[in-house]
Write a structure and sequence with these properties.
Distance between the termini of chain A: 63 Å
Largest sheet of chain B: 8 strands, antiparallel, barrel
CATH class of chain B: Mainly Beta
Strand order of the largest sheet of chain A: 1-2-3-4
Number of strands of chain A: 28
Strand order of the largest sheet of chain B: 1-3-4-5-6-7-8-9
Order of helices and strands of chain B: HEEEEEEEEE
Largest sheet of chain A: 4 strands, antiparallel
Number of domains of chain B: 1
Strand content of chain B: over 45%
CATH architecture of chain B: Beta Barrel
Structural class of chain B: mainly beta
Shape of chain B: elongated
Radius of gyration of chain A: 23 Å
Oligomer: heterodimer
């Protein structure tokens, strides 16, 4: 009895001591369970835009293009049954719907075509072929043996590249393309509405893969470069690529950095979705600092969300955040209120 | 108030039951090995610092049923009291495909007010910790349970019984400057229903 008690009491005390400390959980496990949402069986890959006074929100999922917004769930517009829809673009002004499709199993552009549809899903025509990628903001890239070209779905003249586009990341109306010619790499930034904005040579000293891109204004941009296990932030202007000296705390599971930019009280802010919560980059007088936001409404609500894409809302100052588990939110980055879910 | 009254009545009944039973079967030094397997039902999820997020059986964001299994070893300290340990495994799905799992390691104290040789009625209290995991989150959590177990001994050594009660796992954080973890302090309550096979020696 005595020996057993002497053995058990210290074990219990050590256990209780361990339990009284914060352990390895990044966020509340029970909190994540409480916030878990039912799986609808489809995965939202991108929010495309809205029509008809916010009633029709178009989303690209792993099984096709759907419309939501009337509280009736996901209404199918286009199905991925025969050809896989790799990306899509809703051209609101026209309005038209474009999809980049390739045969099932052909992920890398073989037989990839750009197809044009009416917004209710009626097929109109094949718009182009040999398409390597399409962005949700309306820029696409074709590659043949004789010519590599950046095209614009808005009325902007196409741009020929002398090299090959190896990387593309989009942000709002812009796309960053990394062009490789011989051994020289060039960052080229295009606006979907005005064409090429700038081109700057990538410094040899900058190693790593570009995994994030964020527009600040028409002439200032940020990129996130994954270098080993760190995610370093660089600024890009027409003259240089400059290390800001700050890096992200972590990255979401799917490997792509999603972010949005806003201004408040004269300061520029960029919120990056991290594995938990958001990292907030503050830019003030060309000085950069980064912190984790854990208290604002959207940061708490979406803290464990796996983000598909973030685009500006039609309401100025707000953003739409699409997540892989099918929930789509309109957030106000300056408000501590909970974000509004679009259903 | 009603709950307290019920608990007091149950404890009183358990306390006086030995008076109506045959002489005790167990002796100091007897040992019992038990193997338990069954289902568990999520009962409640209580957020200690934000009750507005509490979820009960009807609206908890978990599947309706999960599973449990455990092994335990106990030795009798007195005729009615046995002390030992238990190693378990619990799992249940949330509403997403993600699985919640817990591996409780506990000290187990059992009071056996009814012991006829053929039939035992045991009230057990477990206290210890559980390694819990969900998605990317891992946590070493305080864990406690109270269970009631009637058992029938088919042979002199082997018995079979049913166990149920309440199991509570807590997630407790101190105030943290980086993350607002403090608001995530919560207790998950589960109700087990398990088949127990026991070997006594």
């Amino acid at each position: 009895m005595k020996r057993t008690s002497l053995l058990l009491i210290p074990i219990l005390l050590i256990a209780l001591l361990l339990c009284s400390c914060n352990a390895d959980a990044q966020d509340g496990i029970f909190s994540a369970i409480a916030d878990s949402a039912p799986d609808a069986g489809i995965k939202v890959q991108a929010y495309l835009g809205s029509l008809n006074a916010e009633k029709s929100h178009y989303v690209l999922t792993d099984s096709g293009v759907y419309v939501i917004g009337n509280s009736t769930g996901f209404t199918p517009i286009l199905s991925s049954s025969d050809a896989q829809i790799r990306n899509a673009c809703l051209l609101i002004d026209s309005p038209l719907l474009y999809t980049l499709v390739s045969k099932q199993g052909s992920e890398n552009g073989e037989d990839s075509k750009l197809l044009r549809y009416a917004v209710r899903g009626t097929y109109e025509a094949e718009a182009d072929s040999n398409v390597k990628w399409l962005t949700t903001n309306g820029i696409y890239y074709t590659e043949t043996e004789s010519e590599n070209t950046i095209h614009f779905l808005h009325n902007v003249a196409a741009v020929s590249l002398s090299g090959k586009a190896t990387t593309k990341v989009e942000s709002e109306d812009y796309v960053l393309v990394e062009e490789l010619k011989d051994s020289t790499k060039t960052f080229r930034i295009y606006s979907s509405k005005t064409g090429e904005i700038l081109a700057v040579t990538r410094p040899d000293s900058l190693s790593g893969q570009v995994v994030g891109f964020q527009v600040i204004d028409d002439s200032n941009f940020l990129i996130v470069v994954k270098n080993s296990s760190t995610y370093d932030i660089y600024s890009i202007s027409s003259t240089e690529v400059k290390d800001t000296g700050v890096n992200l705390s972590s990255t979401p599971e799917n490997g792509t950095i999603h972010s949005f930019h806003y201004t408040s009280e004269g300061k520029n802010y960029v919120a990056f979705k991290a594995a938990q919560y958001f990292d907030l980059l503050t830019i003030e007088d060309s000085k950069y600092s980064i912190s984790t936001i854990s208290t604002a409404g959207y940061a708490t609500k979406l803290r464990t969300a796996s983000v598909s894409n973030i685009v500006p809302s039609t309401t100025t100052g707000k953003f739409i955040v699409a997540t892989w588990n099918n929930s789509i939110w309109e957030i106000d980055p300056t408000s501590t209120d909970d974000p509004v879910e679009i259903r | 108030m009603k709950k307290c009254t019920t608990i007091v009545i149950v404890l009183l009944v358990l306390a006086v039951l030995p008076a109506f039973c045959a002489a005790g079967y167990y002796e100091t030094g007897d040992q019992v090995f038990s193997f338990r397997a069954g289902v568990d039902f999520p009962a409640f999820l209580s957020f200690l610092n934000d009750p507005s997020r509490n979820q009960s059986f009807s609206d908890i964001h978990m599947q309706r049923v999960g599973g449990i299994a455990s092994i335990s070893y106990q030795g009798y300290l007195t005729q009615n009291l046995a002390l030992g340990g238990e190693l378990g495994y619990q799992f249940i799905n949330s509403l997403t495909p993600s699985l919640y799992t817990a591996v409780p390691i506990t000290a187990k104290l059992t009071y056996v007010p009814v012991q006829t040789g053929l039939f035992d009625l045991a009230l057990s209290a477990n206290l210890g910790m559980a390694f819990i995991k969900y998605d990317d989150g891992k946590y070493l959590a305080p864990y406690a349970s109270i269970t009631l177990q009637p058992s029938f001994y088919i042979t002199e050594s082997w018995g079979i019984g049913i166990e149920s009660g309440i199991m509570a796992t807590a997630e407790l954080y101190t105030k943290n400057a980086t993350y607002d973890k403090y608001s995530n302090n919560a207790v998950l309550g589960m109700i087990p229903l398990a088949l127990v096979v026991s070997y006594r020696h």
